[in-house]
Design goal:
The protein is α/β, with parallel strands linked by helices and about 290 residues long. The chain has helices at about 10-25, 40-50, 70-95, 125-140, 160-170, 185-200, 220-230, 260-265, 270-285, and strands at about 5, 30, 55-60, 95-100, 145-150, 150-155, 175, 180, 185, 205-210, 215, 235-240. The protein has a domain at about 5-155 and about 185-215 and about 255-270: Rossmann fold (3-Layer(aba) Sandwich).
Length: about 290
């Protein structure tokens, strides 16, 4: 087995490196834009061939949801064209792909957790390109695995948890959206789930949903972040989405049903608050 992790400098890429270097040392290649331009089809094909890659974990993505509304070409280049290039290289060299997608492929009008078979209807450029990446991958490399996740955070890079910790320590009041419901997902938990797939006796292709257990609003999430971190001097005020306008539309409800991945790969998923505690503990240890 020879594993290629793309987007290795991102949140999930960092956590994949932590997990794989601990449990599968010496067999993984880690690349980001500086090492491998995924939008260059020939470069991708050569890299996969020359390094005898057997598995690709594609963590690379354009994830700035609001900026994507203007930066459409770059967003599509990374979320669609790069995926096509990986798919073509994998198909030609017999490699298997685990590709990370998003809850933003749904419009958020459901009232119950989304299953993998539910109708998609993205309402933003980001969501649209991620869905196009899914369909392109399955068309070119049908033996692939796609994992949709949501509200990802970690000790690495920029994310909601780190932003709220910073603001909660410096401001007396925060106004946070209370009518968008989803599930915070600790990148370490997703990395562990991907490892479970890689180390499994079986490979069942198709789409899976993975987040941590439970559901909450951004307001609830923020309250828990500050409480767990012991930040008591900042008041958190709930506001409707209309009071916090953004360039890109967000789904109001994007909780994902996780049953398929739990049953297929015998994965136990922690509640999001348990994982949040671990992340904040790690952040404090780094200070």
């Amino acid at each position: 087995m020879k594993i290629l992790v793309t987007g290795a400098n991102g949140q999930l890429g960092h956590e994949m490196k932590n997990v794989l270097e601990d449990k599968m040392p010496g067999i993984t290649l880690y690349t980001d834009i500086n090492e491998l331009d995924l939008t260059d089809a020939k470069a991708v094909e050569k890299y996969v061939l020359d390094n005898e890659v057997t598995h690709i974990i594609n963590c690379a993505a354009y994830t700035n949801v609001d900026r994507a509304e203007e930066d459409k070409l770059l967003c599509a280049s990374i979320n669609v064209n790069a995926v096509k290039n990986l798919a073509a290289a994998a198909d030609q060299n017999g490699a298997k792909i685990i590709h990370i997608s998003t809850d933003y492929v749904f419009d958020g009008k459901s009232y119950k957790p989304y299953c993998e078979s539910d109708k998609v209807n993205p309402i933003s450029q980001y969501g649209t390109t991620k869905r196009q990446g899914e369909t392109s991958l399955l068309a070119l490399a049908p033996n692939s695995i796609i994992i949709r996740t949501a509200w990802l955070y970690s000790p690495y890079g920029k994310n909601f948890v780190k932003t709220m910790l910073e603001l909660g320590a410096t401001r007396k009041e925060l106004r946070v959206v209370c009518d968008q419901i989803g599930t915070p997902t600790y990148a370490r938990d997703l990395a562990d789930a991907i490892y479970a797939i890689l180390s499994s006796q079986q490979w069942v292709s198709g789409i899976y949903h993975f987040t941590d257990e439970g559901a909450c609003s951004w307001y609830d999430f923020t309250k828990s972040i500050l409480r767990i971190a012991g930040l008591k001097g900042c008041k958190v005020c709930p506001i409707p989405s209309e009071d916090y306008p953004t360039a890109a539309a967000r789904p109001y409800y994007s909780v994902l049903n996780r049953n398929r991945i739990k049953v297929t790969y015998d994965i136990e998923i922690p509640h999001w608050e348990e994982s949040l505690q671990d992340c904040i503990k790690r952040l404090k240890e780094e200070d």
